[in-house]
Design a protein that fits this description.
By secondary structure, the protein is mainly alpha-helical. About 30% of the residues lie in helices and about 5% in strands. It has a domain at about 25-135. The chain is built from five helices and two strands, in the order ααβααβα.
Length: about 160
């Protein structure tokens, strides 16, 4: 953390001062109840993202105005400040509602123009529901074998090792 720290954020890369990036994978610290980083890391980053918001969202990093909608929802979801979270989700909504490219929602687009860069209606957009994982964490017994018989139909795939 010390090597990556700039004044108001953490760098895109250790040796690149005055750069930044979305630290979207911090979401898993909260989903999985880990303590890899102190909470002030997420707070510092969340505060910094508010200074980088453009018309349709937060860029992925300091190199361009491109973003991924699913990852942007992750940085919104781990934010502990409701107004900051709402500000980011409002931009995602604005993109879905006002993008000049009227296609099924894309996850890869320009946050300054709202223009889509080719991806559309991909399953990664399930990432928009990251808040639900934080509000309703996985059950402790999620890996228990079901007591109900399988209702799966069709051919079973079997591996023959001989």
């Amino acid at each position: 953390m010390k090597a990556a720290r700039d004044t108001n954020n953490y760098r895109l890369q250790y040796d690149l001062p005055n750069t930044w990036s979305q630290k979207y994978n911090l979401i898993y610290q909260y989903i999985l109840s880990l303590t890899l980083f102190p909470d002030d890391v997420a707070k510092l980053e969340s505060d910094y993202y508010q200074t980088k918001i453009l018309d349709f969202g937060v860029p992925l990093d300091s190199r361009s105005n491109l973003t991924k909608g699913d990852w942007t929802s992750w940085i919104a979801a781990f934010n502990r400040d409701q107004s900051q979270e709402n500000a980011i989700f409002a931009k995602l909504y604005k993109f879905a509602n006002e993008s000049p490219d009227r296609i099924p929602m894309s996850d890869f687009y320009n946050v300054a123009t709202g223009r889509v860069l080719g991806f559309r209606a991909r399953p990664v957009m399930g990432g928009l529901f990251a808040r639900a994982l934080l509000d309703n964490p996985l059950a402790a017994d999620v890996y228990k074998k079901s007591k109900m018989p399988s209702t799966r139909r069709g051919r079973a795939n079997k591996c023959n090792t001989q």
